[in-house]
Amino acid sequence: MVATAYVDGNLGATVEQPDTLSIIPVPFSNTRQTKTIEASNSVFSPPAVMDVTPDGRLALVLETWQPRPQGATKLDELIPGKTLSGFDLSDPNNPQPIGAVEVNTQPQAIAISPDGSLAAIAGLDINEGLTFVALDGTSLGKPQNFPLNLPARPDLQTDGVTFIQWHPSGRFLAVNLVDRAVPRRSRDRISFRYDIHIQDNHGSN
Description:
Helix content: under 10%
Shape: globular
Low-confidence stretches: 183-192, 200-205
Number of helices: 1
Radius of gyration: 18 Å
């Protein structure tokens, strides 16, 4: 996609290059090479669509938009994504895919809890709430939905969560609702304490 697509909606010429995740060694060194692995994502997506566990062993990548369909030339021909992909970074020189799960439609942000045990995902459909995925080492649990139970806003063209952030204690999430303007504030942010029981193929968390 070319940069002018944001203005005129034209995607530009097709580039025969799959989406990738790059693992860049720090500090930079001529003897340590950048490694890449195929990971479906999108240049036409928000900045918070990837996160890494605190121990650096697992990277999670959201697919906001699916790969460009064959023959598509316009921005509005892209198909919203629903996929969260995981990658094992235990050996940074040989990153490995560990699988993928279905999450919110057109996901906008992901945040991993401070202890690395839970990923929270937000999307553009407020009715889907948040999705939580339990993390066990380098494996993904079954996604669980957490409704936000907010009043309907049919006056809004879009109504979704665009960013989320964990409190350092891991007990709270801050949720950004960028489209819900309120008097004297240009942005409406809500925060809440979550008390959610995750049951998945790892057992209980």
